[in-house]
């Protein structure tokens, strides 16, 4: 399998979906929709929605997973827009481009985030309206993953934890919720659309959890070892904000060892699935290479 | 009918529902949930959720309208928290109490708003999970009303319109979306839960539109004629921010005449409903008295 070409094909499907489901930039009010489009089109790697498509295609999907993938990318993008705001991370750059409030202004970025969050649920209820059982299950799953005890909860604890020393358990709470919750729901939403049974959904959730934690550790490693140009955003920010990271708690080498045990576990679970999980396995292997 | 007593009974049902559906203030992360609770319990009149309950009870409802009413109040509260933030209205007081970012801090208020918005969809998908057709119809309806072309769109145009002269049409766009969208969906969600047919849903939507516009004009009138203590928030803010209001466009007297024509139309529509709409009619009449 040519992983890069496959990722590229998935990415194009996600981007066509975005073009269909996110109102165009000239929809009234144009400034709001232009800001939503700006951020959702700002060159993300589309990891989460790609995982939705790939998870759906493990099974015999009759339903189209693209709208759910777009809904997920809307949630991810809103959380980045709000995190970047002056009152939280005060970031000027994201993926090498001005953040939403820098390109537009603060009120517009705030409302564009709100609107993308709301749009995620509009998409799920509109795209799957002929299959209300699926539609309401997806809304339940995504709203829980994005809610006050998962995504937003992790973000809140992360903010509260700046300038303080966290234990391993507290750091796990933050990462499980701030990062792994959306990666996990990306995979379980896809699998649900594909028609997975409960046991398969459980395995996908466990893979998602391991992949999500790997992402977070990888992010910490890159923040500590990369440079601004390579990463497209300022590096060293964690240490500057005195954030507790895996690196600070365990040191670089132990963080790498921990991440590799997570990817190993995720690949093992892939092999237990009774379907062609070659793409997922290769994708996880590629994360492993980046840990080196 | 004793309108005040009936309103009070409805309000208590809404507040019991809030206590069930909004996580308690000590749920981890406690600061986030305390902020959500603080704002959602900050003494609102619960007009929107009351309209949901009253609209459901026009019909032979088997489903409980309380969760939908709470979902709606979560959306209303989130929009107030975000509107009050320094980058938008920069308000220190709301209903006579410190606004969420004054009581807590800006990041907490931002995330509490996000979490209440998300919670609305969690509630709809959780509470009505045994009736997925209803659940997904409610999510579709609420997400549209709260989305970038209704509630948030109206808010965006309102911000863009400060310090400028709006036409009647532009002002109608703002008020129809910023205020009337949620009032309308409050009534149609209730009616849908009650089992209303398409014609009845259409009438409730039209009543909601008229009541919503009346509310906005009433708000403009009170801002221009009341004092801070009576209103529980600073008055004269519209004129200070050079906002275009109905008062600025038409003068106080014409604004009153316009509002009365809206309530007259709404009451007429109530009488056309083939059910006991006494509460709704009395409620609308009480708005009419406040216009004087």
Q: Can you give the mean pLDDT of chain A?
A: 92
Quaternary status: homodimer
Number of strands of chain A: 2
Secondary structural class of chain A:
mainly alpha
The level-1 CATH class of chain A: Mainly Alpha
Largest protein interface, residues of each chain:
A-B, 54 and 54 residues
CATH superfamily of chain A: Farnesyl Diphosphate Synthase
Estimated helix fraction of chain A: over 70%
Distance between termini of chain A?
A: 22 Å
| Low-pLDDT segments, ≥5 res of chain A | none
Could you tell me the CATH topology label of chain A. Answer: Farnesyl Diphosphate Synthase
Strand order, sheet with most strands of chain A: 1-2
CATH architecture of chain A: Orthogonal Bundle
The biggest sheet of chain A amounts to: 2 strands, antiparallel
Strand percentage of chain A lies at under 5%
Total count of helical runs of at least 4 residues of chain A:
14
Morphology call of chain A: globular
């Amino acid at each position: 399998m040519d992983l890069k070409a496959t990722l590229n094909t998935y990415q194009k499907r996600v981007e066509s979906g975005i073009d269909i489901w996110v109102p165009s930039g000239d929809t009234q009010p144009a400034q709001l929709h232009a800001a939503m489009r700006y951020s959702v089109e700002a060159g993300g790697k589309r990891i989460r929605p790609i995982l939705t498509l790939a998870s759906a295609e493990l099974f015999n999907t009759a339903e189209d997973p693209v709208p759910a993938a777009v809904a997920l990318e809307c949630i991810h993008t809103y959380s980045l827009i709000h995190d970047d705001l002056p009152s939280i991370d005060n970031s000027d750059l994201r993926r090498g481009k001005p953040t939403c409030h820098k390109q537009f202004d603060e009120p517009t970025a705030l409302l564009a985030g709100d609107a993308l969050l709301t749009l995620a649920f509009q998409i799920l209820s509109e795209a799957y309206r002929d299959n209300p059982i699926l539609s309401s299950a997806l809304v339940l799953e995504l709203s829980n993953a994005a809610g006050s005890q998962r995504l937003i909860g992790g973000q809140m604890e992360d903010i509260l934890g700046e300038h303080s020393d966290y234990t391993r358990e507290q750091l796990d709470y933050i990462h499980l919720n701030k990062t792994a919750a959306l990666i996990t729901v990306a995979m379980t939403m896809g699998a649900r659309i594909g028609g997975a049974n409960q046991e398969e959904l459980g395995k996908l959730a466990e893979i998602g959890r391991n992949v999500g934690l790997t992402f977070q550790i990888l992010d910490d490693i890159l923040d500590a070892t990369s440079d601004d140009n390579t990463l497209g955003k300022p590096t060293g920010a964690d240490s500057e904000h005195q954030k507790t990271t895996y690196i600070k708690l365990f040191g670089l080498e132990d963080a790498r060892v921990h991440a590799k045990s997570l990817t190993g576990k995720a690949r093992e679970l892939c092999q237990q699935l009774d379907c062609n999980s070659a793409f997922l396995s290769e994708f996880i292997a590629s994360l492993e290479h980046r840990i080196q």
